[in-house]
Design goal:
9 helices; ten-stranded mixed β-sheet; alpha/beta; Rossmann fold
Length: about 280
């Protein structure tokens, strides 16, 4: 599994960026990685030309750089991590992902900006996650220490297994568990076939899931794995399990799109939006 050498961090200049920066510093310290701190000024506001003979309304990027550097130096006293700061103009998602590719970053860290709709991420956060071709750590909570208790939502597919292995590499001291929700069929299911024995089908699905979890735990040396079947809403039972536990990070996998971006499954998207923990979305 590839080690972390370069981590790009997308921030704004507000106080909440401290959580993102501190999480990035902790992770960089753990992995002896270099941080590339990126602040993007939205193109329409970077330079507003005056059409009435006055001076252009521009942002003082030198002062902004100094402000960000001062913030990082204060947080970095404990960690002494090497870092560089970039301030660029453009659309946030495009510019951040372009810079990540340019510096050959191994991971992207961003904050979880919330939309006005409760418990949902802002559109920009989801855009970055969905279009990224490298793992994305979405920070939702304040960072006080390294992650200790990690839960991985798994469908037993390759991407999910790679995500867990990646988490084991970059969070070597954390306890990592796995959870899987069994999707049941019932009589009112629009996909159900008339005349089929649903009880027998559901029992078989549970048995297969138990076997897959056993193999996953053995292969990745996991100490704990849980197969859930309490109800018919797989997404919700997995989310409830995560939010009711004492976890500080959730790992989910994606389905890659040839290096140009990724496609999250419905469960992964649901967890990304609503999990109370930080979320690591893995894409190879």
């Amino acid at each position: 599994m590839k080690n972390l050498k370069r981590i790009i961090v997308g921030i704004d200049v507000g106080s909440k960026s401290n959580h993102v920066l501190k999480r990035a510093l902790i992770l960089a310290k753990q992995n002896k990685a270099k941080l590339f701190i990126m602040h993007v000024i939205e193109a329409p506001w970077f330079s507003l030309p005056s059409y009435f003979g006055g001076e252009d309304d521009t942002i003082d990027t030198k002062a902004l750089h100094k402000k960000i550097d001062k913030k990082i130096k204060g947080l970095n006293q404990e960690y002494q991590v090497s870092y560089a700061i970039f301030i660029d103009e453009g659309k946030v998602t495009d510019t951040l992902l372009y810079k990540a590719a340019l510096i050959r970053a191994d991971m992207l860290i961003i904050g979880a900006n919330k939309s006005k709709k409760k418990n949902y991420l802002a559109t920009r956060t989801e855009q970055i996650v969905h279009r990224s071709s490298l793992p994305v750590l979405v920070v939702k909570k304040s960072a006080k220490e390294a992650y200790k208790n990690i839960i991985a939502a798994t469908d037993f597919q390759t991407q999910s297994k790679q995500g867990i292995a990646f988490a084991q590499t970059i969070f070597p001291k954390a306890a990592i568990s796995a959870v899987h929700g069994v999707e049941k069929l019932y009589l009112g299911d629009s996909y159900a076939l008339v005349g089929r024995n649903f009880s027998e089908y559901n029992d078989m699905e549970k048995k297969n899931a138990d076997e897959n979890m056993k193999n996953l735990m053995k292969k990745l040396s996991l100490k704990k794995g849980e197969v859930l079947e309490n109800g018919f809403d797989t997404k919700q039972i997995v989310l409830d399990y995560i939010n009711e536990g004492s976890y500080d990070l959730t790992v989910v996998g994606s389905r890659g799109l040839g290096g140009t971006g990724m496609l999250l499954g419905s469960v992964s998207t649901f967890i990304l939006r609503k999990a109370s923990t930080d979320v690591l979305v893995y894409v190879s």
